[in-house]
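Last lecture ended with a question: if I hand you only a sequence, what can you say about the shape of the protein? Today we answer it with a concrete record. The protein is Histone family protein DNA-binding protein. Below, first the input exactly as provided, then the predicted structure, then a couple of comments.
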Amino acid sequence: MNKAQFVELVQKSGSYKTKVEAETAIKAFTEAVTAALVAKEEVSLVGFGSFTSTLQKGKSGKVPGTSKTYSTKDKMVPKFKPGKSLKDSVEAGK
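The predicted structure:
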């Protein structure tokens, strides 16, 4: 599903009158979650899931087939853990 299709789905699900209103709601949600994660706060939506930012440790390795090595630095990455209701709904929709 691309963004335009998702906006239409949100418009129908949320009873928005226009696609612009639905897109504004989506944009507000994503910006709010992004701001919270940048501030290292957790966003928990009961039944849906939790958004968190966690530290991903750097690693080093070898490029296959060569003698070259590489290493990555520690970085913060976003994580999503689905809630029970979301898991159950997805499983029921097999």
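Comments.
1. DSSP finds three helices and five strands in the chain.
2. The mean pLDDT is 94.
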